[in-house]
Amino acid sequence: MSKAKKEVFSTTKAVKANARERVGTPPPEIVLPDDKTRSQRRTSKHKETLQKLLQREEEA
Q1: Which one-letter DSSP state was computed for residue 44?
Q2: Which tens digits make up the pLDDT trace of 18-55?
Q3: Is the N end or the C end of the chain the one with fewer CB atoms within 10 Å?
Q4: pTM for this one?
């Protein structure tokens, strides 16, 4: 039979537990819908290079 493991005191856990007792648990996170679709975010993430801009002007 093995001994029970001793719990080590954690200051952070004690402070958080104390805050939960006084204030209460925080509300669950609300995720807002994103306006842009994934493909739109990807294209706007990377700026166009000068070479691509010049190629586009030549084609037109």
Answers
A1: H
A2: 999 999 988 888 877 777 676 676 666 677 788 888 88
A3: N
A4: 0.37
